[in-house]
Design goal:
Blueprint: H1 2-26, H2 30-33, E1 37-47, E2 53-63, E3 68-73, E4 79-84, H3 87-98, E5 108-109, E6 118-128, E7 131-138, H4 149-165
Parallel strand pairs: 5-7
Antiparallel strand pairs: 1-2, 1-6, 2-3, 3-4, 6-7
Helix pairs in contact: 3-4
Length: about 170
């Protein structure tokens, strides 16, 4: 009699555990549920003899909430590529932006050193859950102040997506 009662108790506990755990397999993490849209521009700038900086190349990359993406080369002839960012790439971006507490930090402009002949300028616009921010920075060698590594990491990840697709 005790063995049957014990088996019933174990069976009920096991059934409850299954009911608790199974829904969590189907539900994405909070980061995966949140929307994230990204606008990223990258310009390679060269200083002319008269002191002006001109873009020797310029690119624009947009990722929408639905993972659809548009890459545009803005110099030379029109070069536009549309594609879908993979779930893994999008989840990785969301992890960097949403899980790290990055969005509540105010946007910033990290200025360049004066008098440089060549530099790369980046602009990153992020929007998620009604919050948005814009950050601009230049390559590490041209920066007047330290650019946080999380900003550089997001830029490098976006550069890698562009390189794989473009």
């Amino acid at each position: 009699m005790v063995n049957k009662f014990l088996l019933v108790i174990v069976g009920v506990v096991a059934a409850m555990a299954v009911l608790v755990l199974v829904p969590s397999f189907d539900n994405p993490s909070p980061e995966q549920q949140q929307d994230l849209s990204v606008e990223y521009t990258r310009q390679n700038l060269t200083r002319l003899e008269d002191g002006r900086l001109v873009a020797s190349s310029a690119e624009d990359f947009v990722i929408r909430n639905d993972r659809s993406a548009v890459y545009r080369n803005l110099t030379g002839g029109p070069d536009v590529e549309q594609f879908t960012v993979s779930s893994e790439e999008m989840n990785s971006l969301k992890g960097l932006v949403l899980s790290t507490g990055f969005m509540p930090v105010p946007g910033a402009d990290y200025p360049q050193k004066e008098g440089l002949a060549n530099l790369t300028k980046y602009t990153l616009k992020l929007a998620s859950g009604g919050n948005s921010k814009t950050i601009t920075w230049v390559n590490l060698e041209a920066s007047q102040s330290a650019v946080p590594s999380i900003v550089r990491n997001i830029g490098e990840q976006l550069d890698a997506i562009i390189e794989r697709r473009a």
